[in-house]
Amino acid sequence: MIKLEYFTSADFDTLLDWVWDKELLVQWAGTQFRYPLTKNKLDWYIEEANNFDNSSTFVYKAVYTESGRTVGHISLTSINRKNRSARITRVLVGNSDRGKGIAEQMVKALMKIGFNQLNLHRMSLGVYDNNTSAIKCYKKCGFQVDGLLRDIQKHNNSYLTLMEMSILENEWVALGKVIDRQNEM
To answer: Is residue 83 within a helix (H) or strand (E), and if so which, with residue range?
Structure first.
């Protein structure tokens, strides 16, 4: 089992160890960061994040509840409290922990925060269509495909297509999830 905790500057080295490769940086962050990823860029990333009452971005690390070891990274961005929407971004499982269902646990934990604590109506995400394991994970979490943004980003000598996905609060409830706005993370 994992739990989500706020990502801080103390976590930078772990993330930098995971995102050492240009290809992985593109898969993880799209156009958000340019290679190489640095501590200065990560400082900017969390600068105004993680204030529950007014931030439009929450950045988390995923931690094994038993050992306290960090095993992943995930963020909730573009939080629009008026429209009750937000976007899941930058989902990454640490190198040695991939293939263990951690990404699914992270996404579901973030959905619980979004729907239960932030009172969101809609959560969305974008994933490159060549990332089949991530697409499978998101579908398993209840996300539906909204459409494709074809050839949205030039990468090396080809283009990447972005798959847009979303889930609505009534779909979350239909999955058997209870919206309990009283409980915290």
So the answer is: none
How far is it, in rounded angstroms, from Cα 22 to Cα 2? 28
Pairing of strands 144-155, 2-6: unpaired
Q: What is the CATH number of the domain that holds 49?
A: 3.40.630.30
- 38 residue type, one letter: T
**Within a domain: residue 103?**
yes
Token pair, residue 7, equals 């990502």
Q: What are the pLDDT digits (tens) for 106-150?
A: 999 999 999 999 999 999 999 999 999 999 999 999 999 999 999
Q: What is the DSSP string of 3-34?
A: EEEE--GGGHHHHHHH--SHHHHHHHHTTSSP
pTM over the 0.70 mark: yes
